[in-house]
Amino acid sequence: MKEIYLDNNATTKVDEAVFEEMRPYFCELYGNPSSMHFFGGQVQGKVNEARQRVAALLGASTDEIIFTACGTESDNAAIRSALEVFPDRRHVITSRVEHPAVLTQCRNLTQKGYRVTEIGVDSAGRLDLEELKAAVDEDTAIVSLMWANNETGVIFPVEEAAAIAKAKGALFHTDAVQAVGKIKIDMASSCIDMLSVSGHKLHAPKGIGVLYLRRGTPFRPFLVGGHQEKSRRAGTENAGAIIALGKACELAGTYMDIENSQVKAQRDRLQDALMASIPNARINGEGADRLPNTTSIAFEFVEGEAILLLLSELGICASSGSACTSGSLEPSHVLRAMGVPFTCAHGSIRFSLSRFTTDDEIDFVIKELPSIIQRLRQMSPFGREFLKSQV
Amino acid sequence: MWDYTPTVKDHFLNPRNVGDIPDADAIGEVGSLACGDALKLYLKLDENKDKIVDAKFQTFGCASAIASSSALTEMVKGKTLDEALSISNQEIAEFLGGLPEEKMHCSVMGQEALEVAIAKYRGEPIPEHDSEHDHGQAYPDHEGTIVCKCFGITDTFLKKVIETNKLTTAEQVTHFTKAGGACGGCIPKIQELIAEVLGQNNQPRTRPEKLSNLKKMQLIQEVLEKDIRPLLWADGGDLELLDIDGSKVQVAFRKACAGCASSGYTARMVEQKLREFVAEDIVVEEVAG
């Protein structure tokens, strides 16, 4: 069955040009970039080029780029470093809708005696900047807020948030794994101290990430050992994946306009058509500034896992904020933080597009999803009552 | 992706007996929109009002909830009410070739709806819950109290599920009943219920008179595994047995217990339990490591 892949916030297809770029660096050019000989040196040169390409996409300098193994490592390294840099500051601020890579770490800190504040969001998923202003104080070591939400695509005003944190001397970190490549980022004109990137969210392979670290920002490494990454992240470089990420970042720069025109138009068409054809649905995060590729739609009276599996029967790959997909028993923490009504909290589906999404694929989902929702509503006691009331 | 059996997939994609029976003899409803799953079961009896001749269902929930409901309706047809009542949630799961443990609560929901339907038909009292959550209402018991406030689940219901499914950990109880799966506030209480049910099933435990060194070590490990670690898990903690030297038991505290201010108190609790079940002269030492 040919897949219709609309789950790009989970992971993306490796661009074939990216794969070709990395291919020689496994069986042929496999040298260690740290080696003194020519054979390692040529890999070093290519890693340097990748660093330039990543820096260019972020509007950063090459010495501000630290390669890591994934977005989660970057998030963990940023927060841990801030706490080590400021041993006397015992307060951490994040939001209620962060990715678990940040939220779990912050919640674990409460057991180590830290005060942790989780800033709330409104019903459209927008950050409460006033709450942030009130929460930051001289005891705050770090504020970590995501740039764009993985479930809803809602974009946070991270520059304003960073300015609020900096005013009290705290460090500011942003998990930008969903934003990079979709939103223009210019670290040169920003006051954000640290930023996390994940390769596999932008058509590079899994297992490669970046921690952007502003020049002059105090830092304590998470992994210690060798001198790699200027001793800020020890461990032999994952050269092939770094080279791939460099190419992916170059392409992301080229295709950013497409993300915000073609992809956005497809996303808008998908959500408009579904909202028109399926009664009692709502867009999670509607009215907020959102990523161009993401839409999360909640359908009343049906359950998300059942929708996903029926979509999957047709080859359509999407994702859900519902409880039953994860094995937990409550809807996602993001939807709960937004106060999504309980009648539809269990029936949310996220579609996340990419530059590889075609118009035909969008047409197919528009054609198939209404009957799936109808079928499940006819099976559901609440759905049946609703359908009767519609007649 | 869940590892659903072909039978689960078949009953999800081609559910049997979806719908309603306008002149049903018995109707059972459990679950709610807020809970994330709900089942409405209709039963039609023969002229003698003894055998189930038809069954239909409506389910709001995930694939395994729909498949469990479909399986249930197939299983009860042709059975007498008493025969139907004897269907356990394990039998529903077995009919489907098994369910992932995290989804066992779907099979429990099916069995629960069946009991509600039959209790209502027989005029046995079904208590009205003031909450919108109503899992566990198949177990009317005025002595029964709500344990899990999030999902409205009573101790009577939990004890029955723990006993019939031979559950030993709070995590399993969550998978089977959802209790403890939201805020987690009732997990200590669930631990107590497990201990209570296990206590009923086991012979009263007495300290053995004489123990060889090997038996003593085995018994220490058993008490740590069965009686002590589950209690610590309830608070997000854990311990590791490092060494046993005669009567000296060395343990290290893990997770939330590590560095916890009351770990000294916890160590004494461990010692007390071991003295109770193993030997009077046990000494517990907390070791960093």
Automatic annotation (TrEMBL), chain A:
<keyword id="KW-0411">Iron-sulfur</keyword>
<dbReference type="InterPro" id="IPR016454">
    <property type="entry name" value="Cysteine_dSase"/>
</dbReference>
<keyword id="KW-0408">Iron</keyword>
<protein>
    <recommendedName>
        <fullName>Cysteine desulfurase</fullName>
        <ecNumber>2.8.1.7</ecNumber>
    </recommendedName>
</protein>
<comment type="subunit">
    <text>Homodimer.</text>
</comment>
<feature type="domain" description="Aminotransferase class V">
    <location>
        <begin position="4"/>
        <end position="363"/>
    </location>
</feature>
<dbReference type="InterPro" id="IPR015424">
    <property type="entry name" value="PyrdxlP-dep_Trfase"/>
</dbReference>
<comment type="similarity">
    <text>Belongs to the class-V pyridoxal-phosphate-dependent aminotransferase family. NifS/IscS subfamily.</text>
</comment>
<dbReference type="InterPro" id="IPR015421">
    <property type="entry name" value="PyrdxlP-dep_Trfase_major"/>
</dbReference>
<keyword id="KW-0808">Transferase</keyword>
<keyword id="KW-0663">Pyridoxal phosphate</keyword>
<dbReference type="Pfam" id="PF00266">
    <property type="entry name" value="Aminotran_5"/>
</dbReference>
<dbReference type="InterPro" id="IPR000192">
    <property type="entry name" value="Aminotrans_V_dom"/>
</dbReference>
<dbReference type="InterPro" id="IPR015422">
    <property type="entry name" value="PyrdxlP-dep_Trfase_small"/>
</dbReference>
<comment type="function">
    <text>Catalyzes the removal of elemental sulfur atoms from cysteine to produce alanine. Seems to participate in the biosynthesis of the nitrogenase metalloclusters by providing the inorganic sulfur required for the Fe-S core formation.</text>
</comment>
<dbReference type="InterPro" id="IPR017772">
    <property type="entry name" value="Cys_deSase_NifS_bac/arc"/>
</dbReference>
<keyword id="KW-0479">Metal-binding</keyword>
<dbReference type="InterPro" id="IPR020578">
    <property type="entry name" value="Aminotrans_V_PyrdxlP_BS"/>
</dbReference>
<dbReference type="GO" id="GO:0031071">
    <property type="term" value="F:cysteine desulfurase activity"/>
</dbReference>
Automatic annotation (TrEMBL), chain B:
<comment type="function">
    <text>May be involved in the formation or repair of [Fe-S] clusters present in iron-sulfur proteins.</text>
</comment>
<dbReference type="InterPro" id="IPR010238">
    <property type="entry name" value="NIF_FeS_clus_asmbl_NifU"/>
</dbReference>
<dbReference type="Pfam" id="PF01592">
    <property type="entry name" value="NifU_N"/>
</dbReference>
<keyword id="KW-0479">Metal-binding</keyword>
<dbReference type="InterPro" id="IPR041854">
    <property type="entry name" value="BFD-like_2Fe2S-bd_dom_sf"/>
</dbReference>
<keyword id="KW-0535">Nitrogen fixation</keyword>
<feature type="domain" description="NIF system FeS cluster assembly NifU C-terminal">
    <location>
        <begin position="220"/>
        <end position="285"/>
    </location>
</feature>
<protein>
    <recommendedName>
        <fullName>Nitrogen fixation protein NifU</fullName>
    </recommendedName>
</protein>
<keyword id="KW-0408">Iron</keyword>
<keyword id="KW-0411">Iron-sulfur</keyword>
<dbReference type="InterPro" id="IPR001075">
    <property type="entry name" value="NIF_FeS_clus_asmbl_NifU_C"/>
</dbReference>
<dbReference type="InterPro" id="IPR016217">
    <property type="entry name" value="N_fixation_NifU"/>
</dbReference>
<dbReference type="InterPro" id="IPR002871">
    <property type="entry name" value="NIF_FeS_clus_asmbl_NifU_N"/>
</dbReference>
<feature type="domain" description="BFD-like [2Fe-2S]-binding">
    <location>
        <begin position="146"/>
        <end position="196"/>
    </location>
</feature>
<dbReference type="Pfam" id="PF04324">
    <property type="entry name" value="Fer2_BFD"/>
</dbReference>
<dbReference type="InterPro" id="IPR007419">
    <property type="entry name" value="BFD-like_2Fe2S-bd_dom"/>
</dbReference>
<comment type="similarity">
    <text>Belongs to the NifU family.</text>
</comment>
<feature type="domain" description="NIF system FeS cluster assembly NifU N-terminal">
    <location>
        <begin position="4"/>
        <end position="124"/>
    </location>
</feature>
<dbReference type="InterPro" id="IPR034904">
    <property type="entry name" value="FSCA_dom_sf"/>
</dbReference>
<keyword id="KW-0001">2Fe-2S</keyword>
<dbReference type="Pfam" id="PF01106">
    <property type="entry name" value="NifU"/>
</dbReference>
